[in-house]
Amino acid sequence: MYEKKGIKILHVDDEESQLLFTKHFLQTLDDSFIVDSISDPREALRQVNTNRYDIIVSDYKMDKLNGVQLAIKIKKKMNIPFILYTGQDFDVMDSAIMSGVDYYVKKEIDPSHYHLLYKRIHQAVETNQTGLRKKNGVELVSNI
Q: 143 lies in a domain?
């Protein structure tokens, strides 16, 4: 079966409307994005163990497990970029940074914030891939 090439995103949010809107806007901005949407953070932990993702985008405030706790659990097992994508104010940013979250993007009513999320996804994935190439001793240098 043909598998679409692109950035594979695991999006975790316990609000169904957020899952739908985010997936819609991200795939509109970049049709190579493959977005798996999950409403239960515990299910997200199972998914990252059985599927390959390039990045995780997670809400902060969820039942059973918040986004920072999810980041800590995932970062202990694997090196995968993690974006905390939340309506919470910056009061959770310190704990997010300490947990290994790569970027913090604030949800806004104005849909223009999806452009920032899109840019942060690309930045985090590229930074991670560059780091892996350096770690494996395969650094590509370009004069462009």
A: no
